[in-house]
Amino acid sequence: MDSPADDGARTSVNHCRGCPHRRDLLTEGRCVPGDVCVRAMSGRQIERFFRVNPALADDYAGDSFWERRAIAARYLSQKKLLHLIHDPDEVVRRVLAYRLPIEALDALIGDPDREVRVTVADRLPPDRIERLAADPDYLVRQYVARRLAPGRLFRLIRDPDRQVRAMVAERLPLESLGLMRDDPEPEIRLTVAKRIGFAEAERMRTDPDWRVRAQLAERLPQDMLGPLLEDPDPDVRAIARERGCH
């Protein structure tokens, strides 16, 4: 049940005098002053109104109140949705990003709102999201790194964001993984060490992080353990020497 703080002052019947729905919906019980009302300045009342009267959403696509447009957009026909692509309010465009047909989403790739672009990156087919790989927001690029075809991830290898590169290190094809063995983040180099091919792993045996070297000591063939047998870290040496004895 809504509190006064939620809905503000309850709409009175007097407020219905100028409402176009007073002669039909009100008498039919399809709108209720103070509870199910499209003229209220309450998102909850507006939502209830369109839930009861979804066919009327198209009439409010151009309403002056942003919240009324945003809620109506949840119920709009596909044809009406297209007219709201350039709506000035980001909340309206966020609804569009969820509801527009896939073929219309390209129009929102450059949207100024991050949440809109994140939704676009999440919904577009993988073969159409590469344009978002240069997005200024790291979260959008993370979605791209998660969904882009592995063979196209090379452009994100030097991404400035650590989390983006971490996703790339997990998905990059093995033949390109050597390009990340000098990443500045130890956690990313550790991921590389877990996946990298043996022929590409030689330079990582002297990695500055002992965890990376330990991972290699567990994976590499005996004839490649080399400097790991005399590693400065006792745990790395122990792993390498135990494996070298077998």
TrEMBL record:
Transmembrane segment boundaries: none
Domain of life of the organism encoding this protein: Bacteria
Family matches, as SUPFAM superfamilies: ARM repeat (SSF48371)
A Pfam family assignment: LRV
Domain spans labelled LRV FeS4 cluster: 15-59
Protein name: Leucine rich repeat protein
Organism in which the protein naturally occurs: Thiocystis violascens (strain ATCC 17096 / DSM 198 / 6111)
Record lineage: Bacteria, Pseudomonadati, Pseudomonadota, Gammaproteobacteria, Chromatiales
